[in-house]
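Attaching the record inline, Q. Sequence:
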Amino acid sequence: MIRSTESVFAQGAVLVPDFVTPAEEERILLRIGQASWMTELRRRVQHYGFRYSYSGASRPAPAASFPRWAEVMADRLRPHFDDTLPVQCIVNEYRPGQGIGMHADHRDFGPVVASLSLAANWPMRFRPRSVRPYARDGLPGDEVVVLPRRSVLVLAGRARSAFMHGIDRADTTGEAATRLSATFRTLAPAAERP
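Structure, as predicted:
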């Protein structure tokens, strides 16, 4: 059992600073800004490879092919995925005061999740899934980590399976800049079957 005070980084999380250069970040942000956004959520998103089912009621459905920048990042991330190429990418835009509730990525996706932070340094919260009561937003005892722009956060092992992560809206209200993230995943074997 994971204690609520145990760090996610002792359980398989890795933060890789400067995963992309400032020039690469600028080019990626330009390409993301030129693409179409989905606006059904409170934040804008783009899905590539496979669509993320927010309800979890259906298996991932095919989405637009990876743009070139995402292909390059997926290939660079391959060592973190046990030499497997990620096949799903979701881009999220977080404006000041926006966030995402505490969650663990759906089981239809593989055992590693890697998220590239772009445009701003923003805080993310981590909490063992076993902590009760569940709360969408922050709780005392959450581990709060500032994710530097241009870094990649890799969640593997128990950091992926036994922890939730999220961005508390209250933590971002005073942020001056918008953050974008590009999160890469593989599909779990069961999700690959029709």
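The longest strand covers residues 109-118. Residues 6 and 150 are 26 Å apart (CA to CA).

More tomorrow.
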